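Need residues for this backbone.
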């Protein structure tokens, strides 16, 4: 699914503001196994990006970053595709180069995309009952099945290697661009 995962993400980017809706509808057309494969890969990408270095960068870009805000930030990062995702994980300062005025005008979601976190569960719900409306029973069933398929819902321990007052020095490019004018 790894290649198909990034292929779907890249195709979904072509739909601008309709990216999440297109991705959800595309998953609805897939076999249930493919929905679970997508979700498993998405969760793995979320886990891999749960790093103090990336969180510090998000903190500078947005002028602060809560747990939920960091989830939405990582969802946005994944939504931008494999190349940006990998570059940002390797060097979060790359985001200063990526987040240009032109890219910000084209990217209606920057730098957060909460809705992408539930595309697979929404598609699964639709397959089960023909509606996108949240259903607690179906949602529980979805996550139970994901666990049966091997995803571990263990909280990742993160140890911050930065303090807020260190961010200007640690992320000079991001700080120059967003320190006084964060995106959110």
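Answer:
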């Amino acid at each position: 699914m790894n290649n198909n995962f990034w292929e779907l993400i890249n195709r979904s980017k072509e739909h601008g503001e309709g990216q999440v809706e297109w991705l959800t509808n595309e998953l609805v057309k897939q076999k249930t196994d493919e929905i679970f494969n997508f979700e498993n890969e998405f969760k793995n990408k979320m886990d891999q990006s749960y790093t103090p270095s990336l969180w510090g960068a998000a903190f500078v870009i947005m002028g602060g970053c809560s747990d939920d805000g960091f989830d939405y930030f990582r969802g946005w990062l994944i939504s931008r595709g494999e190349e940006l995702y990998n570059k940002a994980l390797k060097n979060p300062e790359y985001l200063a180069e990526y987040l240009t005025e032109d890219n910000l005008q084209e990217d209606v979601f920057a730098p957060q995309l909460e809705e992408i976190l539930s595309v697979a569960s929404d598609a699964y719900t639709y397959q089960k009952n023909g509606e996108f409306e949240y259903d607690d029973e179906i949602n529980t069933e979805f996550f139970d099945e994901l666990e049966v398929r091997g995803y571990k819902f263990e909280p990742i321990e993160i140890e911050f290697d930065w303090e807020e007052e260190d961010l200007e020095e640690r992320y000079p490019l991001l700080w120059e661009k967003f320190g006084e004018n964060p995106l959110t």
